[in-house]
Amino acid sequence: MSIKLEDVVKIAHLARLSLPESTLEQYAGQLSNILAMVEKVNELDTEQVEPLANPLDNIQRLRKDEVTETDQHNAFMQNAPASEAGVFLVPKVIETIE
Amino acid sequence: MSQSPLHQQTLSQLASGLHKKSFSSVELTSHFLDRIKQYDNQLNSYITVCDKTALAQAKAADERLAQGNAGPLTGIPIGQKDIFCTQGIKTSCGSKMLDNFIAPYSATLIEKCDTAGMVMLGKLNMDEFAMGSSTENSFYGPSKNPWDENTVPGGSSGGSAAAVAGGLCPIATGTDTGGSIRQPASFCGITGLKPTYGRISRYGMIAFASSFDQAGPMTRTAEDAALFLNAVAGFDPKDSTSCEEPVPDYTQTLNDSIEGLTLGLPKEYFTDDLDSSIATTLNDAIEALKKLGAKVKEVSLPHTDYAVPTYYILALAECSSNLSRYDGVRFGYRCENPKNLTDLYERSRGEGFADEVKRRIMLGTYTLSAGYYDAYYLKAQKVRRLIAQDFHKAFADVDMLVCPTSPTTAFGLGEKTSDPISMYLSDIYTIAVNLAGLPGMSIPAGFVNEKPIGLQLIGQHFQESKLLNVGHQFQTVTDWHSNMPANYR
Amino acid sequence: MEWETVIGLEVHAQLATCSKIFSGAATAYGAMPNTQACAIDLGMPGVLPVLNEETVNMAIKFGLSVGAEVAEKSVFARKNYFYPDLPKGYQISQFELPVVKAGTLTIYLDDGTEKIVGITRAHLEEDAGKSLHEDFQGMTGIDLNRAGTPLLEIVSEPDLRSAKEAVAYLKNLHTLVRYLGICDGNMQEGSFRCDANVSIRPKGEQTLGTRTETKNVNSFRFVEKAINYEVSRQIAVLEGGGKVVQETRLFDAVKNETRSMRSKEEANDYRYFPDPDLLPLVISQAQIDAIRETLPELPQDKQKRFKEQYGLSDYDANNLVNNAPLGGYFEAVVKQTAASPKLATNWIMGELSAALNKADITVENSPISTEQLATLLDRIQDDTISGKIAKTVFECLWEGMLDVDGIIEEKGLKQVTDTGAIEAIIDDVMANSPEQLAQYRDGKDKLFGYFVGQVMKATQGKANPGQVNNLLKKKLCS
Questions:
Q1: pTM higher than 0.80
Q2: Rounded distance, CA C377 to CA C387, Å?
Q3: ipTM, 2 decimals?
Q4: What number is the average pLDDT over the span C194-217?
């Protein structure tokens, strides 16, 4: 599978990555090469094989329903690039799902 | 032995010195801080050096030592890979994205080190978000290999390997997603242990690929690794993927005889791809193990060739999702004057991540996107099982596998940066271990053209003791591990 | 052309846990922004989720209550998209393997019919935070307190055929989750939210039309309005020769219309994959059995029982079941009175509910106890007072007087049942109304009511109305 320029643009947008115009060609080539390399898995017949998500095949453990966290928003806000009155700020969001 | 300089001593020697009050933790810490000052402009192994907090921790350790309530690691300095969150201290993950990130909490591993009374010298250099095999992808510039500063120390835990090899810390932590502890350990002539997946908590360790990532020690010796593993291994209720398997005392079995142990040599790992002088060196190391009474048997891991493709599909898919949280909203890099929300996201991420990370995010995004999931991700998860089964079948016949850690010794700076795939292939012998979640260890096994090369031991799930036992026995009859690069002795 | 409406609902019920689904932060509503968002909720680097066991128990409860199979193994998946209220850039949800498989919910329609609505699945997921649109230097503020609050997303089959059915389904579901104690059902606070998938097709057509998804219609009234709007819009589009576009729409309660949400559209490649930070959720039969033991009587069972045991109509039974405390009050009254359950229902749904509504209090705080109301009904039943006079007693009880019989005694409200006394009054009335009497006897039957009124007035309402009727008929005709 070869990745074309417009694919790079589409993927980059899906991944929210701005890429300089001048690098698109290079990305397309590199991504195509990597894809060609990973295509190798398709040589194998895996019809009868269960997917392996976790190497130990363990199951989920559960946590008691208890409040264990205290309010640390002042500490967390120290890292916020833009904030006011305890909220994080982003450019105006026009339509929203509430 | 006790006359050797502090930076050449093993952890147990240092611990003994501290407990006997031959030197204090403050003296020991100062010694390493001085060496960092002296040598790290060459090696670039540290991103952040924590002089003040280190000396404060050392002082507190000395008090514990004086009061007699010190543990085996109390007062021992350590360098932490900059992937572990350290409360109040910059945690960059080697990225511009987190250059301004002061972690508001500490990783479980860091807390365990603190509880043990260890002294954190600083945060070590790494490939950005642990993606790379040379540290050349670090925002802070590449670390150098102390054996030859024109070569890379390996990666992604290259800063850790360089710092230990160069005597800028007696022990460091690394993380290993596809070989990032073992490969740099091999390149720098030190011991690097990647424990079983889930053996050490991942909480607070910045994620690259969640079902692969595993922390581990990078040390001079297997014994040092055992001491450290004792302190940090174990179940963590904050990490759903950590294991409840009991933690043995890894130092107890170091001196067990390895007489009669069967070592498997995977034939797919000893092919023409392997440099012949490396093959010769590794054969000598295997001979040494035989002399200790181990038996050797050829085994086969038939799906070996599929490991790298499988790994890159799965790890990059996980990475693409794991790195979505870096969006310039709550922490980390944010672009100047975003025009709108999309611009904020795209430029913050486009400017905050460097090429390799962007490449990997894009590939992972692509393979997960509509219409491709079954062909790539699901397929690779199935192949992952086949690869894991290869190992389990091999372990029916042998106790442990022995093979090369890396197909080459340290390569030159810049040698592979233009070709991502050639860089990926430097992990061909380490990656399958992560797919199967097995413990793997690289131990110094000799030199080829004056560059160190490691021998990799691969064990069954939770059999770190056996790896450490074999490593330690090997190190009682060899001295590759005690060699130090001439300029850093 | 005649159109058929096809509706499927996705309901997000916030689970009533103390802590979040994957972190130990509190879920209380209304805290200061970001004070209940811990490192995990904020998606800080390196944090990991651990599943809250109570959310699993609640999902099992729900599954059992709709007759669904609880999945022995279910898997959490990441739904990837970028949005400022979604801290990690993905929502942890369930995709291919949900915890609750297919079930059904029986609903009761206004015309007295029952309808079985299919529930496709229900799955656990985390809620997102909130965007605050008041002015922050011309920017949008992000409050992540709600991020990580546990949700049970309940997806119905496209079985609903009108806005009214959709509302009936929603109300039944709302009742159910509150019965189970898994959701407080507070729609104003967003604890119970609904997205409506609406499509239309020519009547008789089997294949489904293109649907739109209208997001977050958060009151029963809005659901009805939004669906009706959407149906007429789609009909207009199709009849105008256009095509319905599959899209997400937002209901504007002020303008009473739905609007396309283009911003949401461009990012609909969610790249679902199993969350590697969480392992498969495995639920044992023993755990399911243990939870089955704790289930309360379910609304549909209670509905059936109320009809059978008390002979109530669908309508009355449904009303009492939908308001569980009122249903409890009803049963307590019935136990203590000789009056019929129907009479009890009438008083509880009528007089009592009206008074409670007017005073804006719930039945748990009713100033009239079940014992008092039962006694009052007994006095109607044994003809001590009439139903009309009983309202006066009811008002006294409401005002705080305690003893039903005392009130009747003190105010002299006892019904006059002495035939002789009533006959005497009738005679008086007839004597005083010669004109009306003449007209009545000429065939103006309507005037019968006039005479009843006069007799009741003369007895201050205390005469037994049945007796008055009988005696009047006799006398007027003689």
A1: yes
A2: 9
A3: 0.97
A4: 93
